[in-house]
Structures
1.
Amino acid sequence: MKSFAAGTPMFGVYSLTGWVYCAVAETTASWWAGDEFVCYEDIDGDGRFESAMLSGAPFLGVPLFVFELGERRALAEPAPYTVISGAEGPSVEFALVATVQTRRLPGMLAEAPPVTMVTVKGGFRASADPGGVGRAADPPTTPIAGWADTVVLGPERPNRIHVLGAELEILGLGEDNAVRYRVISSAPAQVERIAMSVTRSTTYTPIFIPG
C-alpha cells in the first residue's frame, strides 16, 4: 500500500458510506505514470482510520479530484488523525475562461447587425502535466456545468459578469477576439463538492427473421 508522510493535509471526499479523507501518495511519478491518491476511512467515527483505498491519479489532471476510491483494505493498526479547518487544508484554484460569439439572435430584424456575446465559464485549474506524461493539459481548465455567465456587449449598459462569486466588467475585444476586462471583485475562497454519477443504458435492436 502506498502512503504519505504523517502530518500531510488531507481533503474530504464524500462516498456512499460517508466521508473519506485523501492525500497524494509519496511520488511514484515517471514518464509513463503520475502521482496517485490514497484515501482513508474512519468507519466507526472514533477518530482513527481503519481502512485505506488506493484511488488512482487525479481525474482529468485536476488536483483533489478523485474519480474512484478503489478497493478498501484494512490497516494493520488504526491510524489517529486530527480535524483541521477547511482554510488550513489543501485547495485547488478556480480558473475562468472567456469565449466570444458573434451571431444573430432569434427575432432580430434583417437589417440589424449581429450581436457579440462574451461567455465566461468557471472550472478547476488542471495540472500542467496530467498523469506525468510530459505534456501540457488540454484544456487547462476542467469546466463545471452551471458555473458560467454570458453578456451581450453594448455601450448602453455596464457589461458585468458574475461567476464563482467574482464580478468582472467586460471592457471590449482586442485582436483575435481577446477579451479585455477588469476585476470589480475577486472570487472568495469557498468549498465546493462536485458529485459525479455514471448512467448506463441498454439499447435493444429488433431482429427480423424471414418467414
2.
Amino acid sequence: MIGMILKDIIQIRNKWIKWKNLLLVISVLTATTFLLRQDGWIVTVFLMFILINSVQSLFISDGKDRWLAYLLTVPENLSRIILSRYLVALAICVAGLLINVVFLFIVNVFLFNLGIVKVGIITICIFMISIIYTLFILPFLYAFNQNGLTLGVITLFTCILILLKFTKIRTYISKIVLSSNIYNLSIIAVVFVLIIVGVSYVISYLILKTLED
C-alpha cells in the first residue's frame, strides 16, 4: 500500500511543484490579499478545491496506464487499494490546510489583524468543507473516471439546492450551532465526518468490487 501512496504523491508533486504554478499561486494570493484585504482568505477556499480536484488526474492516469485494471489482477486487497487513494486525498486536504494556515498567519501578523478566533474558525470550516467535498467526489471518480468529478460536483450542488429549497436544514443547523458549545460542536462535526467517511468508503469498495467481478 505504501508503494501505491508514493506513486500518487509523486504524480501530484510533479503536477504542482513547478515554478510557473508556484509563481501563479503566490501572485494570485498576493493580488487578492491587497484587493480584498481582510476578505482575501476567500481565495484560499478556491485554491483548496483546485488542489483537491487534482485527485482527478490520478484516476485519469490510472485509466490511461490501466493501473487499476492491473491492481485488480494481482493479489492485493481491495480495501488497501481504496484506502491508499483515500489517504492521498486526505494528504492533499492537509497540504491545502497548511497553505491556508500559513497564508492566514502572514495576513494576520503583517497585514490585517483578523483575530485568532476568526482565523481558527475560517481554518476549521475550510478544512471540514474540503474533507466532505473530497469524500463525496471519490466514489464518483471510481465509478466514472475522468467524468466523475463533473458528475460529482453537479450532484453535490443539486443535493445542496434541494436541501436548502425543500427542507428546513438551515434552521436545524442554526439551532444546533446556537444551542451547543464549541466542545459539543466539535464532537458533532467529528461524528458527522466519520459517518461520511464510512459511507463514501463502502460505496467506493462496492464500485471497485463490481469492476473486479
3.
Amino acid sequence: MRWPWQRAARTVRCAEPRLLPCATPGIHFEATFAIAWRPALRTRPGLEELVVSRTVARAREIARQFPAIEVRSAQDAVNAELGAVQHTRGTPYRCLTARTELGLSAAARAAVAQRRADEERVQRLRFLRTHLYDYPDLFVLDRIERHGGCPGSEQVADWHRLARSIAASGQWWEPVLAQWESVGRGFTDVELQNRAMLALHDALEALNGKDGPVSLPPDPLPPAHAGGPRA
C-alpha cells in the first residue's frame, strides 16, 4: 500500500555479479541482487547507487561468515537478513525488500574442489601415520598385501627401517636412531648386538648425568705462536 504523498516504489536489479568475501581465503562469492526500495520525498542524485552500495555492504558482512563450500547456506542467511522490511531512518530512501543469489565462478569451484581433495588426503595420511606407520609390523603386512608374494629379508628390513623412520620423524632421538642403524650394520652376531645395545644404554645414561658427571677429554694445547715466550 502506498500513501498519496509517498513516491512510487522502484526496483533495481544488479545483473553484473558483485564479489562478496567468504571465510575461505582467496575465494569470493558471486552475488546478484534484486532490490525494491522507495525514495523519500526529497531525493538527491545517485540515490540508486547508495541503495545498492548499502545493500551489498550488509550482504558482505553476512557472507564472510561462511566457507565457500556452504554457498547455499550463505545465500539463505543473506536473504533472511535482506528479506525483512527495513525502515532506514536517517537516509533518503526506504528499503522494502532485497534478495540475492550467490554462486561460485568456475575457477572458484575448481579451487574449492582441489582444497577439499587436499584436506581429505591430509586426513588420510594422518590416519595412516597414526594407525599404520607407527607400527612397523602392520606396515610390513600392508606392503606384503599390496605387492603380493613373499618378499626377501632385505626388502622386509628396508620396510621396517622406513616405518621406524616415519614413526621417529620429529622426535629428538631420531638422529640417534639413524646413527645407530648405520653403526649396527656391522654387528651381525646376536651377542655383539646385545653388547652394543648395553654399551649405548650406559653411554646415554652417563650423558644424562645419572651416573655422575661425564669426564670429557681435556682441550688440546694451543699451538705455539712465533715470537712467543720460550721455556
